[in-house]
Amino acid sequence: MNENRPRVLIVFVKYGDTYNGSLERFIDEYCKPLKCQKRLIIIQNADENMPITQKNDWIYEMGGDNSVFEFSGWQKAIDSETARSFNPDVYIFVNSSLYTHRFYSMPIINDDIINIMSKNKIFSGKIQKRSFQLTYEELDLSLLVATHFFTMHREIVERLGSIISEHKSEKFVSSTYSPDIFTENKLWNELLKKDKMTELTRKYHKKEIKISPEYHKFFARKILAISNELLLSGRIKKLGYKIIDSTPFSRFFNSYYTIFAVNTTIRPFQFMRKIILMPIYYLFHNRLSEKIGLSNWFANMCTKNVKRHLSNQIREIQE
Prior knowledge:
This protein is an alpha/beta fold. 41% of the residues lie in helices and 17% in strands. Helix 9 runs antiparallel to helix 10 (295-318). The radius of gyration is 20 Å and the shape is globular.
């Protein structure tokens, strides 16, 4: 390992056998190729009492904390002596659901990109921009970094104190079942409710998990986790740190479009370009690149695109 490279702590949270195989794939595709000083902590959120065990010279496993889903699991890991003794320069936070997201929503990480992030004190991942203004307690929440996979400089982690912004769902959700589920609060306005509840019900109703007395606590904690996702980006933005998109072709794919959403701004040229070309990119990435022996070429092209875009974003912010 190169002692001059940043020290990278990777915290990967999983819950039982949900998304089985994602951890092994992540280790092979992302972790093993890194030449930097690295440490991976696997957080088992389904077993909060599991003691910390060392699997090899750089992989550890420990019990988590599922009170705020992945956020509390990550926080328990970064507070552990295993993390503190490593003294990382850069943190990589990963949720086991990462491979359920489209390839262009997956940040690209290699030694060069980590070095850029370390030098520039960056918070990065897949940026999502809202089509409406959203503010809460002096925080601008109009953009967020999706928390299936994101990176953060150590200084940001230290200044935040905790990546958990809110510990209790009762601030946003009624403590007992109600079809509306939400209490009166200043974070979840009507547009945000429409946006996120459509997403949640589409995802979980297919699994027969519906907003009902039986699953009220589950959805309450999901809403708490989403609230923490929103607030994390707002808090970091308020601290003045760079928020950078580290996904491939982000200028192409980063516009937030929902055709029938209220107050959504549609830019016709960008919209049609996305509709026409996205299936081509998706088909090539998932089907053709491997069959015709160009998967390595496509991966290298994505990596070069991210490095170039990172440099451009940093330069734009500095100017």
